[in-house]
Amino acid sequence: MDILDNLYFIAGIALAGGFSHCIGMCGGIVVAYTTAKGEALSRWQRLSGHLLYNLGRTTTYVAMGALLALLGIAFRLDRTLHGIFFVAVALLMVVIGLQFLGVGRIPLLWDPASSGVFQQTFRRFTRSPSLWSYFGLGLLNGLLPCGFVYFFAAMAAASGSPLQGALIMGVFGLCTIPPMYLLAISIDFFKRYQGLRRLLNTLAGLSILFFAAVFLYKAARLTGFVPVT
């Protein structure tokens, strides 16, 4: 199963998770900057700003995907090492999938939001009347720790090339724009559909577990536990 052959499946997971997980995890940030900026900008500027915010997130994700894929190439130098890397990726996916299903949580090893520089920059962008401050907020948001991001980051790292890694993370970012944009312009919309959000969360979790199984199978073939036919 080639990752790029299944971009439509990856996009589906991103869209489902965007309407369920991302709304809950990043919704507070959207509400915070929307409230802080108040009426300083016109309605058209605010709508444009929300789009710039999401493009900023996607920009960070694309850069992250290319970098992780570049690092992942090092594990392809040895077949056994490559298999072990795939096992690690699969185990991470299992943890993320279970979290989507309400089982356990991923511990945070490091949170950039705890950095004084990050907090000061975030506050500066939040209070700025500049339209491009939305883009800056999006760039920062893309750095925040998130289990859903970790899933796509793991796929990018295992993709085999910086271009493919960037594409995977780019698809993720673009597919999460619709739910985040809708949240920015209509917060009440998501309060009415909690049941649908739970269903989408479950579907995303099961899909992530499916990919985990695929990566475990690939690892078994690379390490010789499953014969290559």
From TrEMBL:
Residue intervals passing through the bilayer: 6-34, 55-77, 83-110, 131-153, 165-187, 199-220
Domain of life: Bacteria
Domain (Urease accessory protein UreH-like transmembrane): residue spans on this chain: 13-212
Keyword set, alphabetical order: Membrane, Transmembrane, Transmembrane helix
Signal peptide span: none
InterPro entries: UreH-like_TM_dom (IPR039447)
PANTHER family: HEAVY METAL TRANSPORTER, HEAVY METAL TRANSPORTER-RELATED
Protein name (database record): Urease accessory protein UreH-like transmembrane domain-containing protein
Natural source organism: Desulfurispirillum indicum (strain ATCC BAA-1389 / DSM 22839 / S5)
Taxonomic lineage from the root: Bacteria, Pseudomonadati, Chrysiogenota, Chrysiogenia, Chrysiogenales
